[in-house]
Amino acid sequence: VNFSLTILGSSSALPTSKRFPTAHLLNVNERFFLIDCGEGTQIQLRRYKAKFSRINHIFISHMHGDHLFGLFGLLSSFNLLGRKADLHIFGPSEMKTFIDFFITHFSHSSTYKIILHSTGHKKKQLIYENKNLEVYSFPLKHRIPTTGFLFVEKRAELNLNKLAIEKYKPGISALAGIKNGRDLELENGKIIPNKDLTLKKWRNRSYAFCSDTTFYPKIAEILKGVDILYHEATFSQADATLATETFHSTARQAAEIAKMAKVSKLLIGHYSNRYKDTDILLNEAKEVFENSFAVSEGEVYNVDRYRESD
Amino acid sequence: VNFSLTILGSSSALPTSKRFPTAHLLNVNERFFLIDCGEGTQIQLRRYKAKFSRINHIFISHMHGDHLFGLFGLLSSFNLLGRKADLHIFGPSEMKTFIDFFITHFSHSSTYKIILHSTGHKKKQLIYENKNLEVYSFPLKHRIPTTGFLFVEKRAELNLNKLAIEKYKPGISALAGIKNGRDLELENGKIIPNKDLTLKKWRNRSYAFCSDTTFYPKIAEILKGVDILYHEATFSQADATLATETFHSTARQAAEIAKMAKVSKLLIGHYSNRYKDTDILLNEAKEVFENSFAVSEGEVYNVDRYRESD
After folding, report:
1. What does the alpha-carbon distance between residue A257 and residue A240 come to, in Å, rounded to a whole number?
2. ipTM of this model?
3. pTM over 0.90
């Protein structure tokens, strides 16, 4: 069961000849979640052979062009491809104006329905769930209302320990109970504890997306222990004043958030085009948080599935 | 003195992993004219090292997304780069709504002024000129109002034949007359014809852009003798019915226009993504018009400057 992130765009507002504006694609069990949609996202999706038709959910962090100017083109292409499935777009309330403009002027006879979900930006909240996944939005601190997104696998049913099940032969309704964590009472009244009947739980994998934001330590609580934290790192510490003024973060600040939140892995991106080389940013992050990576277009970050230890 | 065309995007509405939607960049004497602006144009401009700041004129053929969805990103980047020069955009009257939407929602404090020029689509008309160049719009035939654009160098002053000038030593006002084509009357009343005093005229180079359009032979008159004709060739002749239905052209039809108009060189593009290989389209065009080329991103087509023959 896949849980992997593909980087489609890693630049900040001014793209370069090699870097596209922000867009990430999260694959959870072959369902694809698009997070931000900078200009050229559909071209990147093709380049990295993503299945357009498997994208049913798009999450937009805020209304700055470098995070959403790829939407018009992508929505048009869905139409040309004859898409039928509903498309759910999660974003600030202003997205309605943006999407309405598109529909009025560029999509007279759409083959599919767009369903908008307005994400508040005041507190952490569950904005989407399916049987495998929960998605939360949470407030960031930028020049305009901006949210991060947290993707967490849901506690699935427990897997049965086949040997034990063959031994105790529980009935159908007892089996369902076991999968949901219940113990088994045998006919002789003996109780077999659930842990002897099931395999250890799968750990719920998680990914958090934080772009764009000034240094905002309050979010560390929300990000606690995530497998992958993506945190913008527009500037280096030498440009910390500029970062503060523009409500962006430095690479060091991103790493400080990662450290506070005790995440497994930090990805940085949204680089200002003033840095010809991202090493300066990566090294700065690594000084604070060793397991840091500076993302580039086309990279894939997998989180392996593993069972919880005792 | 340059007159060269760079292909920024060659695909039709659905971009591929290698082809961007339509955008051409014409360099006339180091002034850059952007023609259509599909998604990703600013990324292509960077990739091919075009000077953003030298683009002061943008021409949009029609209001389909694959010809203008790159505008929002490009206009934003101009702003981030601190552009000061006025930007002139030529296009259908509906461009006003499009640009107003951008300004209202994404450009609160612009560093430069956008000046919109509405191009009619009923007849050929001069829409722009400077001392080196004239630009005309002319009607194409598509599902919505669409124009082509014709770029023609202007007749410059004549260059003097130095040997003759040294011999006859005309005064300053006589010299100005000679440069404008007048003969020289010597003090003894003898007339020296202009052609003995000047070099042959530079030929006025020209480029015509036709996208998107159904087969429309009427335009051949307007395109007569251009150095480079770009004409869309969305489909192959096998899909001619589809071309007619969608108001697009086949490669053979593009070549027929080139042949009727006796142009020097035909460029085809705007390929449907159903063709994995453009050879089928190119071969079809070449059967009718030998000097045909199927464009790809990053190609540069120069028109050399040369003097007219007698």
Report:
1. 15
2. 0.91
3. yes
